[in-house]
């Protein structure tokens, strides 16, 4: 037998116990229902469906966070298909699901429709007389039935309270402000959390886990998996999650510090090359400035060197002049000696009879000159005769006759030339007229070939330009002539009709859409010719008038299309001319035309334009087809081409004739300019021959004279050579003197040049080196050439350096651009030009001397302190987790060891929970990764900092990942509760193992309830803790039909466990379990329902001495039958 519970010792003055439950309009409990609850425990007795769970759900609504509430969980424990009760169904009073007769749909039936409200109140009290009352009010307006439509308010009272005090609330349209004014002492909130925190503090409930476990207790039917139950309800959520969250959170600061280091490094790496390039640029600019200085000094250096060279040259020339002057004097003496000898020989020659020979030689020399001149002119005469086809005569008379013929031909040439030029001019004018006509005809042919229109080419070209300018096709701007043709059977009238319609046919038609653009373009454009256009979008409202049977209009076809109607109307209005066969009819008609082309425009105005034949089709512009007109212009073009070719041939022929006549006239003029004496050489030749014979005979007869003559000839040769030598010596001397003069003038000019600038030492040194390095020796003659080479070399070097400077600047600006693109905030208002270099380099210096070291120090400190401390803490928690779990399980096992789990006459057993490692691979690898990340963590060596950071980041990335697989991994490695496996071991008093429980599966209903109840009792004892008296400050434990499948012995055993732990038991139970539960309570009520929709409560008296309910005997018998 199980001993009676000894509860008196478990009552302590501070412990709160339930004393009263009030519900108003809650589910099928309409109106107010008041249930006093005994501090020793209480039973809600009734059959299934009477409303016991409805009242117990009132406890849940008052005590449990809304996100956890599982209304009527006990009734649905076996079938977890979904929640069938909620606040709406309780406020409205849902009582049935019935089929609508009209719609056939299943609908919920409610006791309370329209605007309604509900209220709950649960009172607690302790032995010190302190009261705590939890109150909640709910309301729905109109016919709202959504969960979000429910309005709710929470109150906590620290005095006795009755729901009747809320009567005014329902009548004040749920005025919360007035409610608060009515209960100023109440703790009133419209959210559950502050309300929950308040009552938990007052009632001694230490955490939300305890509330969750209390709520779970109400539906304790099946433990399910022992591990899950113990992990969720008997063990706190491990601190590893908080440490991991802190690690992830603080890693953001570390990552930011690392990123700051990375960013600073990248910024330094970006700007440092720019600084290097800038320094190189400065060096290059110094080089360039030096080269520029040299280049500026090239001209001055050249002139300085020229002065030196000129001084040397003048000195050299002066020495040379002294030598040439002596040479001239010497050669002059030689010439004078030779001349004296010649004079003496000539005297001897004369004395020996040479006077006559000298006279003959003088005459001969004169005759030889005349002979040369006559031979030259005779050659001209012979050449002229040859070109004229004539022979040069041998006699004066014949030559005179030849000159007469030549003079006559010159005169004839002048007349013929004038006539020929006049003829050529006439033919050329005809040719040009033919070419102009041919060009126009060809233009017409091309236009006619391009499109089937008879409109002149220049008009078509103008239309093409207009259409292109306003952006439309040419077909959108038709000429009238392209839309009108003379009917084929009226062809005899076409010439006359063309004369009447010619101007109108050359008019353009434009619709309303294009009118504005066309008008604007034409207004601002010089067309170069006349244009008429008609706006056809707005038809004139002319009165249609009848036309005669012989009207010109009836002889026309109008092309179908957009403009057809407008054109028909315009023709009838303006061109109703009668086509008459006789002049009598012509005179009597108002407006008429004849086939011959005479037009009568009105009674007074008549016209006949015969500038072209009335049948000349080339001027016609009407018609849809232009093949006939094309043929006419092609024939005209061919005829004109033939004419042009013929005229060109005639002009060329006349031109050739002119050239031939001019050539002959020129030769004739050559002859006319000569006389016979100028070409007759025979007398001169005879005289020269006679003189030569006389001189020869005179010399051959006088030996002495001959010898003197020979000596004279030799002496003349000597004089000639001496004179030549003297002249050469004088030329050489004069040349040296001129050079001295020129060089001296140049030297003086250079020395007096005020623009000459003194050279700097740098220029002198640099240019000395460059001029010396030249391969050619520096002389006056080569100075300019060498200077050009030096200057060219300097220009090349400067150009190359400029290119290098430009490359440096480009690289610098590219670096600045990269910096500004990557870090616009850091760049601020600095632009990427070279002008910003000081600002960028100042920033670089700050980064190198302050920013980067500070960032690296900050990163290392955070890596050393925060993150590694968190990681070390996480490692510690993981390593110490099993020990902590075993310690907690020891506390639970201590509680389980105080009360038998199974008891019989021969044996008493106890439940003991063991924990064993699961050896999870993920956990093992996680711990290894932590150790890897912690390696070198406490050293000062920063060499490993980056590697440690990367290892840490890999861990943090996995811990922070939202990927479902990574979240599962995170739960596995951080939840140390999952690292162990819990096994329930039933052992006897001697420590012998009787049975093992891994979960409730496979056990009988009673055994499962026994296991669930025992674990729940231990969990509650653990979660609710205790005070100095060893019992929890919060005593009530609510069970909903917890023992419906357990035998009486276990029921008593379980109740004894809860009671011995110091709990106040509030149990909903069927009638069969009443007698077993009686000893553990102090009161009860009977819950019943009528018509399946109206629930009520009936209190049952309790006999405290006998510890049993005062039930009628038949009820006890009925309960005994149900229990058996």
Characteristic key phrases:
alpha+beta, disordered N terminus
Mean pLDDT: 82
Question: What structural class do you assign from the helix and strand content?
Answer: alpha+beta
* Widest beta sheet: strand line-up: 2-1-6-7-8-9
Given as residue ranges, the uncertain stretches (5+ residues, pLDDT < 50) are 1-10, 77-83
Main sheet record: 6 strands, antiparallel
Chart the SSEs and their pairings.
Blueprint lengths: L16 E10 L2 E8 L4 E5 L6 H12 L23 H6 L1 E6 L6 E5 L5 E10 L5 E10 L10 E7 L9 H5 L4 H7 L4 E3 L2 H12 L4 H11 L7 H9 L4 H113 L3 H34 L7 H55 L6 H14 L13 E3 L7 H12 L2 E3 L1 H12 L9 E3 L20 E3 L5 H11 L3 E2 L3 H6 L3 E2 L5 E2 L5 E2 L19 H46 L3 H4 L2 H19 L2 H50 L8 H13 L6 H43 L1 H4 L9 H60 L5 E2 L4 E10 L3 H14 L10 H16 L3 H11 L5 E9 L4 E5 L7 H20 L11 E5 L7 H13 L3 E6 L4 H4 L6 E7 L3 E7 L1 E2 L4 E2 L3 H11 L1
Parallel strand pairs: 3-23, 3-24, 11-12, 14-15, 22-23
Antiparallel strand pairs: 1-2, 1-6, 4-5, 6-7, 7-8, 8-9, 10-13, 15-16, 16-17, 18-19, 19-20, 20-21, 24-25, 26-27
Helix pairs in contact: 6-27, 8-19, 8-20, 8-21, 8-23, 8-25, 9-16, 9-18, 10-11, 10-16, 23-24, 23-27, 24-25, 27-28
Can you describe this structure?
This protein is α+β, with helices and mostly antiparallel strands and 1124 residues long. Helix content is 58%, strand content 12%. Mean pLDDT is 82; it is low at 1-10 and 77-83.
Short structural summary:
The protein has 1124 residues and is an alpha+beta fold.
């Amino acid at each position: 037998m199980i001993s009676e519970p000894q509860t008196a010792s478990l009552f302590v003055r501070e412990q709160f116990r339930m004393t009263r439950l009030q519900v108003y309009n809650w589910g099928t409990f309409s109106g107010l229902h008041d249930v006093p609850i005994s501090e020793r425990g209480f039973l809600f007795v009734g059959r299934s469906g009477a409303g016991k769970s409805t009242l117990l759900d009132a406890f849940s609504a008052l005590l449990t966070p809304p996100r956890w509430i599982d209304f009527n969980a006990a009734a649905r424990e076996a079938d977890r298909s979904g929640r069938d009760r909620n606040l709406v169904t309780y406020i409205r009073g849902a009582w049935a699901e019935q089929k609508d007769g009209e719609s056939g749909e299943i609908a919920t039936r409610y006791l309370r429709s329209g605007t309604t409200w509900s209220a709950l109140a649960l009172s607690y009290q302790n032995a010190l007389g302190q009261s705590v009352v939890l109150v909640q009010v709910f309301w729905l307006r109109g016919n709202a039935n959504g969960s979000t439509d429910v309005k709710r308010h929470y109150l906590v009272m620290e005095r006795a309270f009755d729901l009747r005090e809320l009567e005014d609330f329902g009548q004040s349209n749920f005025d919360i402000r007035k409610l608060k004014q009515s209960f100023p002492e109440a703790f009133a909130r419209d959210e559950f959390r502050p309300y929950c925190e308040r009552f938990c503090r007052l009632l001694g409930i230490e955490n939300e886990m305890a509330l969750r476990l209390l709520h779970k207790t109400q539906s304790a039917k099946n433990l399910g998996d022992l591990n899950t139950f113990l992990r969720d309800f008997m063990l706190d959520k491990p601190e590893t999650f908080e440490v991991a969250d802190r690690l992830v959170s603080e890693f953001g600061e570390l990552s930011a510090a690392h990123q700051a280091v990375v960013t600073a490094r990248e910024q330094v790496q970006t700007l440092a090359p720019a600084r290097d390039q800038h320094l190189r640029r400065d060096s290059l600019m110094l080089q360039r400035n030096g080269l520029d200085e040299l280049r500026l000094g090239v001209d001055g250096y050249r002139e300085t060197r020229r002065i030196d060279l000129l001084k040397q040259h003048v000195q050299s020339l002066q020495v040379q002049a002294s030598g040439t002057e002596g040479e001239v004097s010497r050669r002059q003496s030689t010439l004078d000696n030779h001349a004296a000898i010649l004079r003496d020989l000539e005297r001897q020659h004369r004395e020996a009879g040479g006077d006559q020979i000298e006279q003959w030689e003088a005459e001969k020399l004169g005759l030889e000159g005349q002979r040369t001149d006559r031979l030259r002119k005779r050659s001209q005469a012979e050449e002229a005769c040859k070109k004229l086809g004539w022979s040069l005569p041998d006699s004066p008379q014949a030559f005179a006759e030849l000159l007469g013929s030549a003079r006559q031909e010159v005169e004839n040439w002048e007349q013929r030339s004038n006539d020929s030029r006049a003829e050529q001019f006439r033919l050329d004018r005809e040719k040009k007229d033919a070419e102009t006509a041919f060009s126009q005809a060809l233009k017409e042919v091309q236009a006619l070939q391009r499109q089937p229109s008879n409109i002149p080419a220049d008009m078509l070209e103008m239309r093409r330009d207009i259409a292109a300018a306003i952006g439309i096709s040419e077909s959108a701007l038709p000429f009238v002539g392209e839309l009108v043709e003379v009917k084929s059977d009226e062809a005899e009238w076409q010439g006359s009709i063309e004369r009447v319609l010619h101007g109108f046919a050359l008019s353009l038609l434009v619709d309303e859409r294009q009118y504005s653009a066309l008008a604007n373009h034409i207004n601002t454009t010089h067309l170069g010719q006349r244009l008429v256009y008609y706006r056809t979008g707005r038809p004139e409202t002319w009165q249609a008038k009848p036309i005669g049977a012989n009207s010109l209009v009836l002889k026309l076809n109008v092309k179908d299309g957009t403009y057809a109607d407008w054109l028909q109307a315009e023709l009838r209005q303006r061109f109703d001319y009668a086509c008459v066969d006789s002049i009598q009819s012509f005179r009597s008609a108002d407006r008429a035309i004849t086939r011959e082309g005479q037009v009568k425009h009105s009674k007074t105005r008549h016209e006949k334009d015969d500038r072209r034949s009335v049948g000349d089709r080339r001027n016609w512009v009407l018609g849809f087809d232009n093949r006939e007109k094309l043929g006419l212009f092609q024939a005209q073009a061919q005829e004109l081409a033939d004419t042009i070719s013929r005229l060109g041939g005639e002009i060329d022929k006349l031109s050739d004739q002119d050239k031939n006549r001019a050539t002959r006239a020129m030769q004739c003029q050559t002859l006319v300019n000569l006389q016979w004496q100028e070409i007759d050489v025979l007398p001169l030749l005879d005289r020269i021959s006679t003189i030569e014979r006389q001189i020869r005979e005179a010399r051959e007869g006088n030996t002495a004279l001959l010898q003197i003559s020979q000596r004279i000839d030799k002496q003349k040769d000597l004089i000639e050579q001496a004179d030549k030598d003297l002249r050469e010596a004088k030329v050489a001397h004069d040349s040296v003197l001129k050079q001295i003069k020129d060089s001296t003038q140049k030297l003086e000019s250079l020395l007096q040049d005020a623009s000459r600038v003194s050279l700097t030492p740098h220029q002198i040194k640099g240019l000395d080196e460059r001029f010396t390095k030249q391969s050619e020796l520096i002389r006056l003659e080569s100075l300019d050439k060498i200077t050009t080479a030096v200057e060219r070399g300097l220009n090349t070097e400067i150009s190359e350096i400029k290119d290098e400077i430009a490359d440096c600047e480009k690289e610098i600006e590219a670096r600045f651009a990269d910096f500004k693109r990557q870090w616009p905030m850091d760049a601020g208002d600095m632009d990427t030009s070279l002008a910003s270099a000081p600002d960028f380099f100042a920033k670089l210096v700050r980064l190198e001397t302050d920013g980067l070291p500070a960032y690296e120090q900050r990163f290392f400190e955070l890596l050393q302190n925060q993150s590694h401390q968190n990681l070390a803490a996480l490692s510690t928690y993981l390593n110490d987790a099993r020990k902590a779990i075993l310690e907690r399980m020891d506390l639970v096992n201590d509680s389980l060891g105080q009360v038998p789990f199974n008891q019989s006459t021969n044996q008493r057993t106890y439940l003991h929970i063991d924990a064993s490692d699961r050896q999870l691979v993920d956990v093992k690898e996680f711990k290894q990764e932590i150790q890897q990340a912690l390696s070198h963590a406490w050293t000062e060596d920063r060499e490993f900092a980056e590697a440690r950071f990367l290892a840490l980041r890999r861990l943090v990335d996995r811990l922070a990942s939202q990927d479902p697989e990574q979240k599962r991994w995170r739960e596995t490695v951080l939840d140390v509760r999952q690292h162990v496996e819990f096994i329930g071991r039933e052992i006897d008093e001697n420590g012998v193992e009787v049975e093992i429980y891994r979960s409730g599966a496979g056990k009988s209903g009673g055994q499962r309830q026994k296991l669930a109840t025992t674990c729940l009792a231990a969990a509650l004892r653990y979660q609710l803790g205790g005070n100095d008296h060893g019992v929890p400050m919060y005593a009530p434990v609510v069970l909903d039909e917890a023992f419906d499948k357990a035998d009486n012995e276990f029921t008593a055993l379980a109740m004894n466990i809860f009671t011995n732990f110091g709990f106040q038991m509030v149990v909903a139970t069927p009638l069969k379990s009443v007698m077993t539960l009686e000893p553990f309570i102090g009161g009860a009520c009977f819950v019943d329902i009528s018509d399946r929709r109206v629930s009520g409560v009936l209190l049952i008296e309790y006999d405290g001495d006998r510890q049993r309910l005062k039930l009628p005997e038949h009820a006890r018998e009925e309960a005994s039958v149900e229990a058996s």
